[in-house]
Amino acid sequence: MPHPQRRPELESQLRKADLRVWVSTTGYAIAQGQERQRIKLVELVSASGNESGLISAVLEWNFGERLTWELSAWDEARLARLMPYAAGWKASARGMYRINELTQLLQQAGHFLQERAAGVRDFALTLGIREHDRLTTTTIAVQAGTLQIRSGRHAPSYIELSPITAARLVLGGPPIPELSSIPVGLRTLLPLPVYVPPLDYV
After folding, report:
1. What class does CATH assign to 102-189?
2. Which CATH fold would you assign to the domain 10-93?
């Protein structure tokens, strides 16, 4: 992971959250609770794409009968690998993201965005996020392959979005109506890859 989290009290955190962890050479699985017959996974990662193998190992270790795991509907690659093995599935809302400070978010992802900006045509755009009477603005520009992210309005092109629409653009989700007004260069940079470990869910 590009931003690993040091957890000196990991054992205590796992105990308080009532989580069990299995680790293999190519990934890991985390289950909620101590139930062994019906296991509820909260997270599973397989670097080799062998999620079904890890699931089988967890079931075998627990002498389990059934395992459930909630995945994002946008996680198309893993869903495609797992659907042939699923006894059943259902879709439901799970959570949401909110961008509190767009400039800081993009600056934290600057290294990742700079790699994507290498082949992007020059552009400059100010994105505004308006919520009631609060407006925050961030200017994103690429010049000769170099990315610039600044707080405030510093570009002639300006687009204002609602918090929900901004989250869909920046973090991924269904296409937004304003997408045709967004420069192709910015559409190439976004969305950001987002991962929130179960221990950090709010």
Report:
1. alpha beta
2. Aminopeptidase (3.40.630)
